[in-house]
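In line with agreed milestones, the collection of sequences with tokenised folds has grown. One record among many is set out beneath this paragraph:
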Amino acid sequence: MTTDSEPPTAFQVILEPGGVQCNLACRYCPYPPEERQQKKKPLRMTKTILNTFTRQYIEAQQVPEVTFNWQGGEPLLMGLEFFQQAVDFQLQYRHPEMAVYNTVQTNGLLLDDEWCRFFKANGFLVVIGIDGPEGLHDTTRIDSSGQPTLERVMAGVELLHKYGVEFNTLTNVHPGNVDSPVEIYRFLRDDVKARFMQFIPVVNQEGEKVKEVSVTGRQYGDFLKTIFSEWVRRDVGTVSVDIFDATLAAWAGQPPGVCIFEETCGKALLLEHNGDLYACDYFVEPHHCLGSIKNKRLTEMAISEQQVRFGLAKRDTLPVHCVECQVRFVCHGGCLKNRCLHTPDGEPGLNYLCEGYRDFFSYVGPAMMFMVEELQAERSPTNVMYLIAEQDALLQLSFAGARVNEPCPCGSGLEFKDCHGRKEA
């Protein structure tokens, strides 16, 4: 096979050491309860597979930094001893000049002093799931007994702060919280004191049908626009939001740093507890299994013809509607898993979130362009906040008669109360 894609000098692997086992029962979770609650025979990555993967993963990287990404389910169900063994193997196989990092995504219920001391001592970055303040988080993120969880999650957050553990927040955006973007953002910024946030849209599919627990593209776009409207006025330089960072990178002609917005994919794979390697954590299906590290080398599978084809399909299957889109340079059609719609011309492959992406990327364009110009002039992109403040002062003089629930006269598409009529916190 001939290809214009060179074998990767580095690739990432998401690790699911306990499969999708979890101590939560989120109402939007795509996995059935029998998979999440493996009480009779819990799934566990063996010491042998952990050892084999660690050695091969470090050997495969041709870069000075390597990151181990631990996810689930709930990875902390594996226990502290497992992660101590993982760190020991990393120290055993790392090259003297190589930096090794660990990121663990958790719902926070199991965090205690011992876990936090371990994370701090070993430089772990913790990604903690929080869907908003109590009225929003607890409606969907309940434990396996049906009990609310935010109080316990916030206790875990306090421990992360106490021990100085670096952490990010991950918020799933779903029908239960999508109408409260400002409330969620301010809660994460002011109460959780998060300085890096991710907002992930819930899009669950069953065959070709999108389930009701999913947000629409328009809802997600409005959610992001409203948060951006708050962020660009006061938090540039102090709070990072992954999709804002990715958008600014694209406007500056740099890689977005978020796989769903890369032109091609295939460099973010997934390893199951049993050693099976898959093309992507969104495609854990038999026909996307690349093999097992029990009998194949990790590098061989990562640069295989099958994986190269998978990665190039993201670019090569874009419908004409997307190829000609003015914001294609930012989103590149989004994640393959969500390309389940037809374009206005009837061509398959349109992203389910397209309407929201297109609206959001267009909305933030002027601010992004200004920040790029500031960076190019070796000035601070935080100057955008002064620019917006000047524009707001002029606009609000002419918006005195606007009603709170009507579209904002500025043309953003948001209601006045969520745009230029919003009260500052």
